[in-house]
Design a protein that fits this description.
The chain is mainly alpha-helical. It has 19 helices and twelve strands. The strands form five sheets. A three-stranded parallel β-sheet has the order 1-2-3.
Length: 464
């Protein structure tokens, strides 16, 4: 069987981090088995669905590197097909026309509440012959079984049983002829050839209602895998009170996509003791059996730790490309040509121990700053008159030097020795002159990345 999974977000809001994880699980499962990963936009709620949210979802998935097969499918565009299935069920006697008004339904429920019986609406029209139907608006309801129970197997939750008496005769078509969400989901999954439905366990109850349609139509059912939700550190459902919850927010905070993929994969799924892994390993390892039943807790420190590891091992060119995307997404100025060149040359000295792109940018301040370099308060303290004099003495020696690390280290070391000071003592004024910071990459890395002309120009600025 060729695997087909889908991610079906509603464009009524931004891409939530929980939705991003659901998309990732579907993507990993399909990609690891040579299958298809499809995208369906469930835009039937016209009042709340917006083009901006739709685009934000596509942008979030693209940032995360979760590519989908084919064009995104609009659920709203399939309304005629969904309605046709409802009429097929009606013609087959597996659904019926219900003429009960909202007032009648509410009166039924009010009586049930007073009598302390089930408020599940039982339509009096279920078995009324067509000849006795009135000429007024109706909905189409499916005929649910009234006795016994239904058991569905779930790859995460195991066998789950539901008493049929708790199933209502679900509406398929509203009185205006529009299909409901529950019907549209099943028809779309069937028509798209979806073999595995991997989604949040808040949809588990829906599975039993949707199963009624599969049964009535005689369609093959997909494999189900309902994954636990994501909780905050306090054990409550992840929400704004815990901080950022949207994929776009995490991009704007500067987390690399590879680190986010790694961390989200580990939220509720495991492969032995593996914490850090590549995309290729995740695709090879991911299976539904590795998903736990308990909610996962979002831990920013673990996210940062994994992101730092991914930045450290990333290819320099790929890291630079993603950094440029981060700058664009946050409205920061684009890199100039010389900045881009120096960043590419100096990435080896920047990416160690940087957990996010803002930290990477901070380390790259010596590249991104223009002359004259204005030292911060702490760095300025290192540029006292004596230190300025030593820099003034060092500059002409560097002008005639070959620009190699060994040579530069030798010149700086001999200058420090001539003044009876340790190399580390001279590194402070050098940092202040080259970066304007008390903390920076190695002074020799900075010299090599900046080049001879820029290094000497900055030293002259500082010593003069």
């Amino acid at each position: 069987m060729s695997v087909v999974t889908r991610f079906a977000p509603s464009p009524t809001g931004a891409l939530h981090i929980g939705g991003a994880r659901t998309a990732l699980f579907n993507w990993l499962y399909a990609r690891g088995r040579g299958g298809k990963f499809l995208l369906r936009i469930e835009d039937t709620d016209k009042a709340r669905s917006t083009d901006e949210n739709r685009q934000a979802i596509l942008d979030g998935l693209t940032w995360l590197g979760l590519d989908w097969d084919g064009d995104p499918i609009s659920q709203a565009e399939g309304a005629a097909r969904h309605a046709d299935v409802a009429h097929q069920l009606l013609a087959a006697g597996k659904a019926y026309k219900c003429f009960s008004t909202q007032d009648e339904i509410e009166a039924f429920r009010e009586t049930a509440r007073e009598e302390k019986t089930s408020t599940l609406f039982r339509s009096p029209w279920r078995d009324v012959p067509e000849a006795e139907h009135p000429g007024r608006p109706y909905v189409i309801r499916i005929k649910a079984p009234r006795e016994g129970s239904t058991t569905l197997h779930d790859e995460v939750q195991g066998d789950v049983t539901w008493a049929n008496e708790q199933l209502d005769d679900m509406i398929l078509l509203r009185s205006d002829g529009t299909p409901v969400y529950m019907l549209a989901v099943v028809v779309d999954d069937h028509d798209m050839g979806v073999t595995h439905v991997i989604r949040g366990d808040d949809h588990l109850a829906n599975a039993f209602r949707q199963n009624l349609i599969y049964e009535a139509m005689g369609w093959d059912k997909p494999v189900l895998a309902h994954i636990p939700l994501i909780y905050g550190p306090d054990g409550k459902k992840l929400s704004k009170r815990h901080g950022a919850t949207g994929a776009a927010e995490y991009r704007a905070l500067g987390y690399p996509a590879a680190g986010m993929r790694n961390y989200l994969a580990r939220l509720g799924w495991s492969h032995g003791d593996a914490e850090f892994f590549t995309d290729a390993q995740a695709r090879d390892w991911f299976d539904l059996g590795g998903i736990g039943k308990s909610p996962a807790r979002f831990d920013v420190k673990k996210l940062e730790n994994l992101c730092g590891q991914h930045i450290a091992v990333a290819e320099d060119a790929a890291l630079l490309h993603e950094l440029q995307g981060y700058l664009a997404a946050t409205g920061a100025p684009a890199l100039t040509g010389i900045q881009e060149t120096r960043l590419r040359d100096g990435m080896y000295a920047l990416k160690e121990r940087a957990k996010t792109f803002p930290e990477l940018v901070e380390k790259a301040a010596f590249i991104l700053s223009d002359r004259p370099i204005l030292p911060d308060e702490k760095a300025a303290q290192a540029l006292d008159p004596v230190s300025r004099g030593i820099l003034d003495e060092l500059t002409p020696q560097l002008q005639n030097a070959s620009w190699k690390r060994e040579t530069l280290e030798g010149i700086v070391a001999s200058t420090a020795q001539a003044h009876d000071m340790k190399l580390g003592k001279l590194a402070g004024p050098l940092r202040a002159a080259l970066a304007g910071r008390a903390v920076s990459p190695s002074v020799f890395d900075m010299m090599l990345v900046l080049g001879k002309a820029e290094t000497i120009a900055r030293l002259k600025d500082a010593s003069g």
